[in-house]
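Quick question, first post here. What does this chain look like in 3D?
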Amino acid sequence: MLLFCRIACGETPAYRRSVAIRYATVLFLTGSCLASPLFAGCGAGNTPADSVAGANQRLGGSWRLQSFSPSVALDLPLQAVLQGEIGQLIVTFNQGQFNAAGPGVNFSGRYEVASASGEQLSLVLYDVQNVGYHFSAQFSGKTLNFQSNDKPWIGTGALEHT
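> Answer (accepted):
Ran it through. Tokens below.
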């Protein structure tokens, strides 16, 4: 019983050694996590807000429409508009506002990056009537490959940073 009491009170060499080993292990792991945020679950890492802010920064500036392939055939007037805009339409993103200007199109509104992770993002463009158009996109060098998810412009395309 006396031995049990001495162990519980931390008076034996074996107890002090195991506590010291545990403390050293905890300090080592904590130091490793702080020194290298690459460990899963350690350090600050990228938060969703950081990823969205980074995507907004990368999106900023002017982009030229390089291609668009509708998933469903467009009617003739919309097809004609699309053909006239390929290589000509410039979309500019700046602090939550966008402007799209080309030979037959000139409109603007606001945009919001809904989420981002690595090279991928999802965003919503809102026209002046506050109607939202949803896109998913992926950065690839100076190109932004996108998929439009709302009618009549459901399809895939690419913008090139100018």
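Helices lie at 2-8, 13-35, 48-59, 76-85.
Confidence is low (pLDDT under 50) at residues 1-5, 19-44.
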